[in-house]
Design a protein that fits this description.
Length: 323
């Protein structure tokens, strides 16, 4: 049985008092109240978490954080991390948008010649996607995906979708439908394709190993959702991990193939995004690289907290991938 939650609601002044008892320098009460009202106590808790006292637990082989803060920890430091993260999310969303649109076009060009409803044709997808039951839903993933397509087609308020529904009804043809899919649906469609179609998408991008590109899209979608919901990004280890590159598989990614920490942190998604952007829009890729370099150089100075916790390697900015 789950434990009963018994902590009481705290007003902002009570939140400030609690933080003070735990050793966090909040500045003036009036400034602290304004900041906590703007950002929210529990949202900021993710940013002051690395400012808390910690110790290594030998039994569990993990670092355990205590409720009290390190000497010198301040609310201003947590705010600085939150502000840094806000800009970082915006940079990732901009890059993912450019990538998503390009992949949509490529999928439409791949399936379009097969017919207006080719995206609904199970023969265009792998049997594991169309026939194997998902243990969570009890139906094949393809069936769940089609249901999402139906929902998006019927409720979209995009002018082109409304016009088509009013004049022709549903379902929408692929080249219209794909414009109302979210990135998760796009990622799922690519992941469910037969291998030749996956290769038709990934080979022109410089990716020859089967399964690599779909796993990248899933990981990128996970980061996109973090960004879209304004969640903490900078030091996350995305739960949906991209398949790592192999040594000598691609020279631009060799440094990532040999760095497991970088792969399992945010850099493990940033690098695949940049790799794909270089193929679909080199000018934008260089612009994004320059913006990332400039932004990471603004990481706030906080004792014990470093930009390396993003997973971006020390010399990442000089790697050929980013230049």
């Amino acid at each position: 049985m789950a434990a009963t939650y018994a902590k009481p609601f705290l007003t902002v002044p009570q939140q400030i008092a609690l933080l003070k008892t735990r050793g966090l320098n909040v500045g003036t009460d009036s400034d602290a109240e304004a900041l906590l009202t703007q950002f929210g106590y529990y949202r900021l808790s993710g940013y002051w978490h690395p400012l808390r006292q910690s110790e290594y637990d030998v039994a569990s082989s993990t670092v355990v954080y205590r409720e009290d803060f390190k000497l010198g920890a301040t609310l201003a430091q947590a705010i600085a991390l939150a502000e840094f993260d806000c800009r970082l999310r915006a940079l990732f969303l901009g890059a993912i948008e450019r990538l998503e649109i390009a992949i949509r076009v490529r999928v439409a060009l791949l399936f379009g010649p097969r017919g207006a409803l080719s995206h609904r044709d199970a023969s265009n997808y792998h049997p594991k996607f169309t026939s194997v039951l998902d243990p969570k839903t009890g139906v094949p993933a393809f069936q769940s995906w089609i249901k999402r397509v139906d929902e998006h087609e019927s409720r979209s308020k995009e002018q082109f979708a409304v016009h088509f529904r009013e004049n022709y009804g549903l379902p929408l043809p692929l080249w219209v439908s794909i414009e109302v899919w979210d990135f998760g649906m796009l990622s799922m469609a690519v992941g469910g394709m037969i291998v030749p179609d996956q290769k038709a998408l990934s080979n022109p991008l410089g990716l020859s190993r089967t399964g690599l590109f779909p796993s990248w899209l899933r990981a990128i979608n996970h980061v996109r959702n973090i960004c879209a919901h304004h969640s903490r990004l900078w030091n996350r280890s995305p739960s949906d991990q991209a398949i790592p590159p192999r040594q000598a598989e691609n020279v631009l990614l060799d440094h990532l193939a040999s760095d497991s920490f970088a792969h399992y942190r945010l850099y493990g998604v940033a690098a695949p995004i940049q790799f794909v952007l270089r193929q679909i829009d080199p000018a934008f890729a260089q612009s994004w690289a320059n913006q990332l370099k400039a932004h990471l150089a603004t990481f706030p100075v906080i004792p014990g907290v470093t930009v390396g916790q993003t997973g971006f390697p020390t010399a990442w900015a000089g790697k050929p991938l980013w230049n």
